[in-house]
Design brief:
This protein is mainly α and about 220 residues long. It contains nine helices and two strands, in the order H-H-H-H-E-E-H-H-H-H-H.
């Protein structure tokens, strides 16, 4: 009797362990299926939009929590002031950091930014929010470029070495998430945020125009 009872207990324990093992794989399987589903092209745009929303909130927090550091903005405004005063000789256009060394397009762009920043460039906080908009626009263009390349890779990549629909879907999902992780990392650059919303450097509009020309 004791032997029979022990055997029955062992069988029950084995059955329980088997059931636990089956349940243990339910969540990973669901997560894998969800990952495969979300890796498809229909979620490329929603993913990029979520990143841009995150970027918008992050820029606001940076402006509100991290002090602005004056480096070149006042010099830019002085150079624009010389231009608006009628000076057209580059030798005579100066700012606090020295003579103007940028092309004429710089003066046109910063003339507009000067107007948006209180009319005379004195409202630096407003200028920071203008640059935050430029930052989000720049991020949108960059993420669009990433998405276009990702879709090209989906169409062009050969999965001939894989066998079966499951393996093909897994390989495609790996490609999608690799690119999406890279897109997410683009949103975490401390230096790029600093260039745009804390320093107001002329690199910001220049890079936006560069990426737009690449996209177009």
């Amino acid at each position: 009797m004791a032997a029979a009872a022990a055997a029955a207990a062992a069988a029950a324990a084995a059955s329980s362990s088997s059931d636990d093992a089956k349940h243990a794989f339910i969540i990973p399987t669901k997560v894998r299926n969800l990952s495969l589903h979300l890796s498809t092209a229909q979620y490329d745009i929603p993913y990029a939009v979520l990143l841009l929303l995150f970027e918008s909130l992050l820029c606001v927090q940076i402006i509100n929590r991290i002090p602005y550091t004056e480096i070149d903005w006042e010099a830019y405004m002085e150079e624009v002031e010389d231009y608006l005063s009628g000076e057209r000789n580059y030798v005579n256009i100066h700012g606090g950091t020295g003579p103007l060394v940028y092309p004429a397009g710089f003066l046109y762009v910063y003339q507009l930014l000067r107007y948006l920043a209180g009319g005379d460039g004195s409202d630096v906080r407003r200028a920071q929010f203008v640059f935050a908009v430029l930052y989000v626009m720049n991020a949108a263009v960059v993420l669009t470029l990433y998405t276009l390349v990702l879709r090209l890779k989906r169409r062009s990549r050969s999965f001939g070495e894989t066998k079966g629909e499951v393996e093909i879907a897994a390989a495609a999902a790996h490609t999608s998430w690799s690119w999406r992780v890279a897109m997410g990392l683009c949103c975490l650059s401390k230096r790029i945020h600093s260039i745009f919303v804390l320093r107001l450097f002329n690199d910001a509009p220049a890079m936006l125009l560069l990426y737009l020309s690449t996209l177009l």
